[in-house]
Amino acid sequence: MNNTLDILKNEEGNLMVVVVLILALLSFLGVSASTTSTREVRIAANDQFHQMAFYAAEGGVVTGIQLLEENLESRGNMETEINNILLNSDNINFYLNEESTEENDRPTTENWDAEISNINGNAVYLKIYGTNMLNDGSALQTAAGYEGKGKSMAGGGLALLYDIRSLSSGLRNTRSRVRIKYIHL
Question: Is residue 26 a part of any domain in this protein?
């Protein structure tokens, strides 16, 4: 019995070493969890900024369609600024732009036809190109009316095929590009 009391009274410090190791392990886990959560918050914020840039570019394309229709209707006699849309005064007749032969010809901050500012902190630049094409039933095909094609001019005519390209430049250097084909009959 005396021996057991001696063991219990022994204070060599083994328990202190174990407690310090457990505290160090818990501190490491806490710092690691904090770093991971900070990284996840940054990833989520970057994803949000990229989505904002994409939707701004997509909205730019829709606005580009409306601008193109107004530009066609007015034959280029438009104001150079409409609400928050600035038209490039060097190319106010952008409905006459010929289709670009280069696949990489994209809107930039220098070669734009229209600039839309402040869409959720993004600036959107539009470039619009077009070509002419004949529809089925146009004047060149009226001779084949008995075959079902080209019964009259009412069934066809000239179509203008436009390539509308939009670049959104936003927060944290996010960029998004959207490109559509649009047919004006």
Answer: no
